[in-house]
């Protein structure tokens, strides 16, 4: 039996856990960063919290006798993916990254592609009502967005103060349908969306809703990814794991 570390925190991570949990040849240990307060159980052994940096991660792989690593972290969790690639390469631990394709704009999408949250203010005018779908962890990067009303959707309502002068947190548990997103953007009279190019079908609905309503989107491009092996789908990642086993 091989011991497989599954770096999770995404829909793919959950689907992979489900696909592998009954495989008698693979013992899966899922790992979550611990960002979500009450994650739904994945049905496999699960650890939570950072490893304590590069050395901590290398020590963990050795101490737990990990035979292979499946990196199903989010496309914007670039530090984790890069470090995993470097450590696994150095220790000769087989690694596969699951990376869903990025979204590409269609003819009726009104996207402005930007490289970071910091750039949003250069495109979104003062007075705009902005729907922020980039998560709570990088809100400090929107420092230049003063004068806009910021509606920030979050899964867990943060304990701290709302970080902008105008706006509020909006609690929401994905997935959201296109109809729900349209109704929400209409009700809030949203003028702009800010979105990370996460890719994937489940969270595309906000973009479909924006297109149908003619709402412009500031689309944050993905960070650079490591140069290791990747697959685009859960099915291909399952094949890889089963072939290894
Ligand atoms: P990051 O910047 O690449 O990583 C920051 C630190 O979080 C890492 O150095 C590591 O800490 C820890 N970490 C990240 N993923 C981990 C995992 N699966 N298991 C254990 N520790 C992990 O990542 P991030 O953007 O903060 O994302 C954190 C987690 O949230 C990821 O698992 C990611 O899949 C999930 N997520 C992120 C986004 C996003 O937009 N960034 C969206 C949805 C879900 P140590 O150095 O201490 O090991």
Could you explain the architecture of this structure?
27% of the residues lie in helices and 22% in strands. The chain is α/β, with parallel strands linked by helices and 245 residues long. The chain has two domains: 2-100 and 224-244, 3-Layer(aba) Sandwich (Rossmann fold), CATH 3.40.50.720; 111-220, Vaccinia Virus protein VP39 (Rossmann fold, 3-Layer(aba) Sandwich). Strands 3-2-1-4-5-12 form a six-stranded parallel β-sheet, with helices on both faces. A six-stranded parallel β-sheet has the order 6-11-10-7-8-9, with no helix packed on it. 31% of the residues are buried. The structure holds NADP nicotinamide-adenine-dinucleotide phosphate. NADP nicotinamide-adenine-dinucleotide phosphate (NAP) binds at residues 7-10, 31-33, 35, 50-53, 56-57, 73-74, 76-80, 135, 137, 196.
């Amino acid at each position: 039996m091989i011991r497989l570390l599954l770096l999770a925190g995404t829909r793919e991570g959950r689907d992979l856990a489900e696909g592998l949990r009954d495989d008698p040849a693979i013992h899966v240990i899922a790992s979550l960063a611990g960002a979500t307060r009450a994650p739904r159980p994945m049905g496999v052994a699960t650890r939570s919290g950072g490893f304590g940096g590069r050395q901590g991660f290398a020590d963990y792989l050795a101490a737990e006798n990990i035979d292979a690593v499946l990196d199903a972290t989010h496309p914007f969790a670039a530090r984790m993916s890069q470090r995993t690639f470097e450590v696994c390469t150095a220790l000769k631990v087989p690694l596969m990254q699951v990376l869903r394709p990025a979204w590409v704009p269609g003819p009726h999408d009104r996207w402005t592609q930007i490289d970071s949250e910091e750039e949003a203010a250069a495109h979104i005018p003062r007075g705009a009502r902005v729907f922020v779908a980039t998560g709570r962890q990088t809100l400090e990067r929107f420092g230049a967005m003063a004068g806009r009303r910021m509606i920030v959707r979050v899964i867990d309502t943060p304990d701290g103060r709302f970080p902008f002068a105008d706006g509020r947190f909006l609690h929401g548990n994905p997935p959201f349908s296109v109809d729900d997103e349209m109704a929400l953007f209409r009700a809030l009279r949203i003028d702009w969306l800010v979105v990370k190019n996460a890719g994937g079908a489940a969270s595309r609905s906000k973009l479909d809703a924006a297109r149908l309503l003619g709402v412009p989107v500031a689309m944050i491009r993905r960070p650079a990814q490591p140069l290791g092996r990747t697959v685009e789908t859960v099915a291909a990642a399952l094949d890889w794991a089963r072939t290894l086993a």
